[in-house]
Design a protein that fits this description.
Keywords: DNA damage, DNA recombination, DNA repair. This protein is of the alpha+beta class. It contains eight helices and seven strands, in the order βββββααααββαααα. The strands form two sheets. It has a five-stranded mixed beta barrel. Strands 6-7 form a two-stranded antiparallel ribbon. The chain is elongated, with a radius of gyration of 20 Å.
Length: about 260
């Protein structure tokens, strides 16, 4: 495969040999790509600092059999500078990168909508205009929508009835009394309204929400996401420790309880 150029976000890195790294990126045109950055762990590396997680970069790669080789890198937006300087933003951003990695399973399969969503989420997180957990939950909900798993939030996920108050992960969102399965959660109406606002990008409504509804929303969204991924998001453990008041709300349902 010949040289090709793309822009991407660095999702993660891992050591290779004594001086190299394998860089996993989500790119605009190619999808998820793994490339070798040669010599980046040396002090005099030309572009080692540009290939850190959260970085939005323009790069040139040479196609290989299993791993491509990164030959040029230019920074487009150094989102990591603002994100790593603030712990809540850092933990939220790490969960965003891990989720994007999990949702784009195949390599070199175009995932433009997920790429644009990730870039927008990191930009919003770096700007610091909204609470980090709101940005994270908005990213989770929209990522699920892009993947085809958007939860039903306005009508019963099973019968379409409007009088739906319970939230059942296995059913796909809110459910009415007649369709409610055992173990379904019953969140506050304000919590469902917050989820709708985050999915739609209504930041005025999201920013004015109460902490207890944000906490309940975060628990439901995280459980719903992990049920569809069939795996836990490891970085969420650090996010949950950082947010004060998490123990004040009803515990979120365990995603494995609803596995069929």
């Amino acid at each position: 495969m010949s040289l090709y150029r793309d822009e991407g976000v660095v999702l993660r890195t891992q050591k290779l040999g004594e001086a190299d790294r394998i860089i996993t990126l989500l790119t605009r045109r190619t999808g998820k790509v793994r490339g070798v950055a040669k010599g980046v762990r040396r002090t005099m590396s030309r572009f080692g600092a540009r290939l850190e997680p959260f970085s939005h970069v323009d790069l040139q790669l040479h196609g290989g059999r299993s791993l491509d080789v990164i030959t040029q890198v230019e920074t487009l937006h150094p989102y990591g500078e603002a994100i790593v300087a603030d712990y809540p933003r850092y933990t939220a951003g790490t969960a965003m990168l891990e989720t994007a990695d999990r949702l784009t399973v195949g390599e070199k399969e175009p995932a433009l909508r997920q790429f644009l969503l990730l870039v927008g989420g990191l930009r919003t997180l770096a700007q610091g205009g909204h609470e980090a957990r709101l940005v994270l939950d908005a990213f989770f909900l929209r990522s699920l929508a892009v993947a085809g798993y958007a939860p039903a939030l306005s009508e019963c996920a099973r019968c379409g009835a409007e009088a739906a108050r319970a939230f059942a992960i296995v059913a796909g969102g809110v459910v009415c009394g007649a369709c409610r399965p055992p173990g379904a959660a019953v969140p506050a109406a304000e919590t469902i309204a917050l989820m709708i606002a985050l999915l739609r990008g209504d930041w005025a409504a999201a920013d004015s929400s109460e902490p207890r509804h944000r906490t309940e929303c975060s628990g439901l969204v995280a459980a719903y996401l992990q049920w569809h991924l069939e795996h836990g998001i490891r970085s969420l453990r650090h996010v949950e420790r950082e947010w004060p008041g998490a123990g004040d709300a009803e515990p979120a349902p365990d995603p494995h309880v609803f596995r069929t």
